[in-house]
Amino acid sequence: MRNKPWWFAIVFLAAAMATVADAEEYVIRFSHVVAPNTPKGRAAELFAQQVNERLAGKVRVEVYPDSELYEDDTVLTTLLLNSSERLAIMAAPSLSKFLQFSDQLQVFDLPFLFRNMDEVHELVESPLIGEMTAPLEEKGFKALAFWDNGMKVFSVRGEKPLRNVPEDFQGKRFRIQNSAVHAAMIEALGGIPERMPFRAVYMGLDKGIVDGEENAWSNIYSQQFHMVQDWITVSNHAYLGYLVVVSNRFWDGLPADIRSELETIMKEATQANRVFAAEKAEQDRQKIVDKAGAAKIVELTPEQRTQWQQATQSAEQQFAEAIGPELLQKIHALLGH
Length: 337
Known about the structure:
The protein is α/β, with parallel strands linked by helices. 47% of the residues lie in helices and 18% in strands.
């Protein structure tokens, strides 16, 4: 048998390497900052479980809760820098974290824009959402899904709850995310905004660095905020949600069949997340009611709620130009305002 030409070995080696590469799994590291038993934590675990079962040998998802891998304040930059064609960082930060990339997403931080969760879902399922996420796509992100936590309530330490504005807020410091809209809202209510990462909130409340905070029920309960606060006011003043993203570089490089299956699984996880969030809000509120020594829960009267709404109208006016007046008009029309 004749010897093969020298170039045959090179071609054979290249083909072998390609075969090995094709056989390698795509790896997705899902980083988030909340507990595994929260709506986001459960949805992330469900997504990972389904991907690892249905795309076994092709895609592997690893979940890192409780800021084990990255903080929300750094994960988006890291996601773009550290993702490759085979390895991706997936994250689901709160929508406030995306404001540096998309002014339009400030809509979700506006106080009293949404009357209930159904209105949130109506917006994220409408064609308007593409207009709001387009700036993210231009900067290298692939927006995959909006996940719920729930409507936010206020908690505070002190002799009386937050009912009347501005007097009940005056002189008190409130933890906020790194959001100019949140800061404007707290100031409009009469309080002092204090930016603080999520992992530092419990200590901040416990040590009196801040007097209060705003959050969804599942975060208040899972992080034990209710044990270092005296009052929770059911304000339902804004939405706390998350946007699941990966890098465009990773997403666009996936084979079409794998990308299609991941989209299907993500839709299933998103629907499950909505159920988790609704159930968790009700369950965790009741657990706080039943817990001895926990913060007491108070409701706003219709008159007090109107007072809060009127006080915070300036926040929407302040950010209307950045969000886009026409987009805001379309959203109000969609929601029947």
